[in-house]
Amino acid sequence: MATEVKAPVLPESVADGTIATWHKKVGDAVKRDENLLDLETDKVVLEVPSPVDGVIKEIKFKEGDTVTSSQVVAIIEEGAVAAAPAPAAKSAADALPPGARFTAITEGVNPADVDGTGRRGAVTKEDIVNFARNGGAGKAGGARPEERVPMTRIRKRIAERLMESKNSTAMLTTFNEVDLSKVSAARKELQDEFVKAHGIKLGFMSFFVKAAANALQRFPLVNASIDGDDIIYHGYSDISIAVSTEKGLVTPVLRNVERMSFADIEKTIADYAKKARDGKLSLEELQGGTFTVTNGGTFGSLLSTPIINPPQSAILGMHAIKERPIAQNGQVVIAPMMYLALSYDHRIIDGKDSVQFLVDIKNQLENPGRMLFGL
Question: pTM for the complete prediction?
Answer without folding.
Answer: 0.70
